Amino acid sequence: MIDEIYKKERESLSVYAVRSENTRGRAGTGFKPDGVRSDFQRDRDRIIHSKAFRRLMHKTQVFLEPEGDHYRTRLTHTLEVAQIGRTLSRALKLNEDLTEAACLGHDLGHTPFGHAGESVLDNLHSGGFRHNEQSLRVVDRLERNFSGLNLTHEVRDAILRHNGDGQAESLEGRLVKFADRIAYINHDIDDAVRAGILKNEDLPRESVKILGNTQSGRINVMVRAVINESYEKNEIKMTAEIQEATDKLREFLFERVYYDQTAKAEGKKAEQVLEQLYNYYVKNYELLLPEYEPIITKEGIDRAVCDYIAGMTDRYAISRYCELFVPKTWR
User: Fold this and answer.
1) What's the predicted TM-score (pTM) here?
2) Of the candidates 175, 23, 187, which has an alpha carbon nearest to the alpha carbon of residue 102?
3) Which domains can be identified in the chain, with CATH numbers?
């Protein structure tokens, strides 16, 4: 069966695609072929079955602990990114399994309380903190009782370079950055409108005129712009007009949503929760779970505490904070 997968990829994928049989492989040993799935399919499955992936359901995307049931979490964001990534990859005749695996793993290292949590750890941890680097650390070091998932080079590279100025080696990896941005720009607008922070008529007119006035319409335009500009080329990009309109819409979101006091009304409290937890565990590191001992020994207390805090869900961080700092009722 695996030979059939390889044959199909040779016949159907673009010359610029990464074929599963040509993967640069895994750093670790003890990974035997199962004869049914390609290496990228197995990476995808390992990510989906990881504890870090399950925790995404209780991690903030933009709005902290929203009361409504329809706001995005880090998990629903990840699924939307994977869907867009697969659409792009299939249309461009790239390796869909590689793209999907990287999309599903791209945010595994995100902190509780969204970017507010990322900012706190970046300030407190001596080595700084960037969620893309932590996502790679999760799959390389922290999952499976600190033995890692032993993923392929291509998936690891795409996870690391899904944001920032760096560029992934593979076209499939470069698609992740576009899929991520297309997803969060559009679903964050949807959530902001639901929260009453924005109205559709508030969106920049010049961007709306080009991209459309509905979420599905804008996603369609953006996706088509990537396909039209990248098809049968050894690069991933948007058509210039759509890229400019998308950038303006993203800048608008930073101004009106991500830095808005209504959206971040609880942000300062969240930052205080993580800061106090971090400082407490640095001083009382013996209270960390026993499995953190190897990290403490090899990489230091600061690194172990950072990993522990980053892995928390929003509600677990709040629970730990209440247990450690909030007086219990007398009985």
Assistant:
1) 0.94
2) 175
3) 38-258 (1.10.3210.10), 267-325 (no CATH)
